[in-house]
Design a protein that fits this description.
2 domains, 68% helix, mainly alpha, Arc Repressor Mutant, subunit A, 203 residues, single chain, globular, Tetracycline Repressor, domain 2
Length: 203
Amino acid sequence: MSTPTTPDVANRVLDIAYELTARSGPDSVSVREVQRQAGVSAATAYWHFKNRADLMLAVSRRATAALADSLGDASENAPSPQQELTAVCLAYLHFARDHEGLFRAVISNSSADELERPHGSARGRSGYAAFEILQQAVAGVAAAYERTYADDAALHVWAACHGLAAVLLDTPMAHIPEVEKERLRRQHVAFVVDALVPDHPRE
């Protein structure tokens, strides 16, 4: 029988918090509801996660790993670096569309430290974090076209994609038809990628 200190109890608590977040967003999650569904006492829940912020950080890291998996899957087998970057950017926007609760969990615990030094649990199956996959895609375009970009080029690409994702979730644009949102996503990514790609590859 499990004791309060065994890993499976912590995993069960985290699994439930993650499922609640995926369903209704991070703001809807309470430790009381999580421990009730997990069938453990409040003391047991707080043994593994010292407070709600600690629990939600673990949820955010797991959600970030799911985002990394989506970006990694999108980057595989792309026929060119330009198409790889396009696929990665679209995957980011589609993750926000398809997993709104998890996307909000990712951004609710965003910090420079988490971005620059991703926790192991925030890394995807490939071993890379989401931002690292984007950095690699930007570097691939730079190498293909023999371009030198600013060190922060990937950050600018991420900010552009994140900006549209937020606009489509949290402004009146959230209420436009999905077909129009998808047109904007694809148009936006084309603008972003075209900004990094010269008219013709250098010989």
